[in-house]
Amino acid sequence: MERTPIPVLTVQTAPYEDQRPTGGGGLRRPTALFESQRNYLPNFVQSLLSSVDLRDRQGCTMVVGSDGRYFSKTAIEIVVQMAAANGVSGPLALPPSPRGLPPCPHRLLLAGGKRGAVPRECREPSFNKNDPPHFLLLTGPAPDIVSDKIYQISKTLEEYAICPDLRVDLSRLGRQEFDLENKFKPFRVEIVDSVDIYLNLLRNIFDFSAIRNLLTGPNQIKIRIDAMNGVMGPYVRRILCDELGAPANSAINCIPLEDFGGQPPDPNLTYATALLEAMRGGEYGFGAAFDADGDRYMILGQNGFFVNASDSLAIIAAHLSCIPYFCHMGVRGFGRSMPTSTALDK
Hints:
The chain has two domains: 185 residues, Alpha-D-Glucose-1,6-Bisphosphate, Chain A, domain 3, CATH 3.40.120; 111 residues, Alpha-D-Glucose-1,6-Bisphosphate, Chain A, domain 3 (3-Layer(aba) Sandwich). It is 33% helix and 15% strand. The protein has twelve helices and 14 strands. The strands form five sheets. The chain has a five-stranded mixed β-sheet. The N and C termini lie far apart (70 Å).
């Protein structure tokens, strides 16, 4: 039985004046704004897509990621529907599911690069204590000329293209194909297990045998890892528990939740209180907490000793000979932000 082609619609809209990408090329606004303002999300997605030449769009694959927060699933669906209507070959969609996904740009680049994709769209969080939940559309660390082009398009936008009847099953791994009106090729969406991709990369970077022995051998240390109900949870369980042998109770708050369990997933002494109290008891020799998308962390030593991020970087630098990747590839330098300490220098 032949499938009826999915219609491609052109929707009339009105431009917004506040959609200038900032902060690494992203649009960071309260989630309520995306929900309440008519076409606010489609407008920006169309501006982003229109900034790429149609010929380039037809030859690229878009990567879609998320930290799993509220509104993420709806946004992913809209982005995929608009990518189809705008001639993108096919997104490599990475859903907010229990399998985990590559939310931050680094893991997006990893997952996309492994599949021959060019990341065009992802989502990052904002955790300002007094602000409502934020939602960020990130085009990557774009140069000003790219951000300005997106902004100029957004100010004059009169219509956008979308396939509203296109429904992707974000919970099912594998490829899904859709026939679109006026399109010669089927539109493809691939749902991938980014945890597996990431794990395979880590195997080539670190000495898994040494780490496994540290966690399970005769002189093992007990660890406590808090994923703070962000999408790092599946990574923590799969890598530290399943692969490296840490007991299952070593990992807490590993189920990704849309509201992060009601607490800001900010890995610091103020919000990671459950981890802090557990570490203060002296039972565990190493503790860590991750933010929702896994690009920030906090490390605690025995009895709750706080390890400054600058110190942890310095410790890694001092023990490069223990990390196979650096032994093989060498080191080109170390990166840190302006306010950090001089531990790395020492």
